[in-house]
Each structure stands twice: as C-alpha cells, then as structure tokens.
Amino acid sequence: MKDKEIKILSVNTSEKRGRKFAVKKLVLDKNGVINDVHSGTWNRQISIIGKEHVDQFKKLTECREIDFGEFAENISADSMEDIDVKEFDRFIIGEVELEVTQIGKPFHDKFRELGNYVMPRVGIFCRVIKPGTIKAGDVMLHKPKMFNILVVTLSDRASKGEYEDISGPTIVSLTNDYFTKKNNPFKIEHKIIPDNAAQLIKILNNAKNNKVDVIITTGGTGIGQRDITVETVKPMLKKEIPGIMEMIRLKYGMQKPNALLSLGVAGVIDESLIYTLPGSVKAVKEYLSEIFKTLDHLIYMLHGIDAH
Length: 308
What we know:
Strand order of the largest sheet: 1-6-5-9-8-7-11
Strand content: 25-35%
Number of domains: 2
Largest sheet: 7 strands, mixed, barrel
Number of helices: 9
C-alpha cells in the first residue's frame, strides 16, 4: 500500500473557540498546538479538513469566499478525496507525527446553512505523537494503520505434525473476514507450539514488544496436566476483562454444561488485547462470534480514544 502525500495549504490557530486564523507556522508539543484553544491532554488536539470539502460546501450553499481556518481547522489541506482516512492512521509532516483519533467534528454555528454540515462528516481530529513545527507548503504523508493479529495454537500433537490443527486456521479465517469487512489493512500471523509455558511466554513478550494489536490463542484452557495457557497468560495481564468470557461460558453453558468448564481469559498485555480460546472448532466459532461484537470498542478504549 503506497503512502499518499498531501500538501498543506494553510496552518491556523486561535486562543478562543470558533474560527481559527492563518499563521506562518504551528508549534506543536505533546498537547497540540501551543496556545491553541483545543490544546490539552485529550484525543482531539489537531483538526484537519481538505480543500475539496470546503469547495463542495461553497457550491452547495452558494456561500461567500471562505478563508482558511473558518471551519475551525488547524490544518487546511489540498485535495484528500481519494484518501480513506480511518482512526489510528498517521500523518507524518517532517519531524511531526499525528495519529487520527476521530472522523467528524463539531461544526461552527455560522456554517449550519441549508443543513450542509460538512465538518461532522469529513473533518479529521488527531493527537500529537511526535511534536515539532509545521507550516503552509509542508507535505503530509498519510500512513494507514496496519492492524497486526497473532494467532497461537497450543497443542503437543499438532506441533509434532501428528494431527492437523483446525482451530488455528479457523481463527485466522474468521478474523480475516472480520477485518476485511471493516476495510482495515491487517496482517495475521499464525504459530503452532507445544503446550509449553516458556515458549508461550517468549511469543507473548515478542508480541508485546512489537505492539501486536490482538492475540488469540486456542488450546490449553482446560484442567488437564498439559493445559498451561491460562496459568501462563494470567500473570502477564495488565488488566483482565472477565465479563466477556463469563458471558460466553454462561450463554453456551446453558445449552451444553461442558462449555462452563473452560478456564479461558481475556485481557490486556501492555497495548495488546489477548483472548485464550478452547481448542475445539465449535468453541472457537462461538467465542469469536461474541468477541467480535466488542473488539472495536475495546481497541478504542485501550488507546484512549472516545469515538462513540
């Protein structure tokens, strides 16, 4: 996927709410534009809008000429109509790095003409990842977020090739469908290891260091002597999310009591979400059908983004 370059037409700021005014440069710290009204420890520090959206608004409303900054944007950019910007994407501007946190923003009252609310649909909010200085004429490089998913099958026999792992590929297939429907760039890696705590810890530490977004394991969630997944994962959790697994066990356990016997857990390891699923294909399908209902929201929560 090729990164897209966008030229900055104007940079704008204001110490008061409402429209912003063009300036020679914006100086950014970790809280946003220094002395800008929207600077702060929140996730909507910088706002961006593309020129084509302003032009469309003018055409629809037969509005007068609109100055840069009148939509309360910090960055007025050249044409962006061929860019599918999503939350967690990055904009690189020289030394500056911004992360997209929201698409759509509150609209200044003076532009509520004929119901054509442009900014709530196409305005882009960002937060500062790397501070620095930006100015008109600079080029923004749009880098789409690549979601990284790790699937780990734990099975002594499957790791030796004594039988075919089916649960792992099922997770890969269902996760592929999920992210494809969301139209998010993603990569899925699948590993098969024996029921070995040391190997699992090594894999999870590597995933943590590489900031893998989602880790899903299958196998080793029972009470057998070789079932080590849950006992290995639990001490590594920064936070546990017990409600998901409790609900799944209860929902399917009401029909088949054996479903209540899985010890699977869900939680957070640093910046990675992790789910430990049973080893059967049927259980994998049941668990993921529930997990995917909240996955988006958990990713936003984990990264401090209020996008709802």
